[in-house]
Amino acid sequence: MNQTTGVDLNIVEEHFEEMEFLWGQWRRAKGSSLFTQLDVARIEERIKAHAAALQAYRLYAESYILQRLKSDSAAEVFAAAWWLLTIKAKGAELAMLERLQVESKPTMQRALTEAMGQVSSSGFAAKAFELNSNDLHEIHFLQLRLATEYNPSLIRKYPLTKYLRAADAELRLRAWETARWCPLTVTPEQTLAGALDTDSRVRRVALEIAAWSGQTWVLEHCRRAAVKPTVENLAELEFLAILGNEKDGALLLNLANKVQLGPERYRILGSSGWASGVPCLLQAMSSAKPADAAAAGATFTRITGRTLRVIKTVTIPPEDGSVADDFEKEFLKEVAVPDVKEAQEFWRENADKFGPGLRYSQGLPVPDAPPFSPELDILSIREAALRSAFEGRTGPTAVDFEQFPTEL
What we know:
Number of strands: 4
Largest sheet: 2 strands, antiparallel
Radius of gyration: 23 Å
Strand content: under 5%
Distance between the termini: 44 Å
Structural class: mainly alpha
Helix content: 55-70%
Shape: globular
């Protein structure tokens, strides 16, 4: 057998680090209006290319990547576990399950279960069903996810009830995120309770699951939240923009005047996709508040497809009004203030091309059902699929957007 060389190890390391980085990009892209479906597909092809390159160096790569499983980085652990399971490395499935049973850090547990969920089979599921969770909730969540896909008769064996009402907010959130993969395991009563949770992250996921399941109460719930909007119910306002109809237009446009909502009020207009919100965005791009101007510009681009020139980049000071020291300055958010004159000129020349009542993404109408143009941003496609499900039509499901590769 050839001896491992420094060149070989360097190549393996480069491919692994790039693959790990791209997985992070993939996760961010799936929830961003800055990436089109085509962009996501390109990221996925690059991940697969680096995985294939590592397999070409398998003699060296397996040993190296097994070491990465011991990393303190959850991103590294996920990428390592995913690759080893993908290539069906000898003993990898049992090794991952055994590691999961002794792992104490929640972030590492989640990295392992996410990798195992992405690369699974009926044979692997059978091994996982044999595990005793011993109150280790990540094993329980993995088993439920696998039961949903491979053996629905076992779903009742892994109820989420106690986790959905756990005292710890992080555990409740994780349970709801698991329910996203298997929405039929939660009842309308449970999702309604989740929509009233004290944690805004839990409320958001519960509302999303309820919408995917076509629970009609969601829209009225969100309309009520818009009457007295606060930063605490931004999720409800977002789902109103996604699910609402033209009758909700005035209510949504009124949100642009609610300064207490901050820049997020302009992102919400982007989720509506209606060109009727563009005049509000043009006005906001002239704001003396850089964060408002930047958010409005980003939404303008999302709806119209026109990328605007950046006239300046501004660092946003701490929200509490304090003065940041040199170290804190490194972590302050920067925003790009767009050229409002360019936006105004574009809209004067193109406003007539945007029909009333239609939703737009990247300058293209968003259809009510597939097929979706790969030039639409992936977030708009997901929102369109969510509307379709809420209204009882067929189309991509929540799982289709979470799995790798994305299949729409």
